[in-house]
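Quick start: load a record and inspect it. Here is RNA-binding protein KhpA:
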Amino acid sequence: MKELIETIVKPLVDFPDDVLVQIKEDDSKITYHLSVNKADIGKVIGKQGRVAKAIRTVVYAAGSSQQKKIFLEIGE
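Running the structure step on this input writes:
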């Protein structure tokens, strides 16, 4: 899943080397925290959050086979 997120996000940003995905796993959920360069945060979120929503949709669909709930947080 980490590779999927990186594959989606890296072509969108100006600083692909700054893309970092951290994983935090609990008993009932998995949280992926996406960090990008401060200058790229707007590109990842998109107008009215449309790009972020699309990324989340793909990640949630890919993780639907897992028994745990999946969350994607986007930050700097």
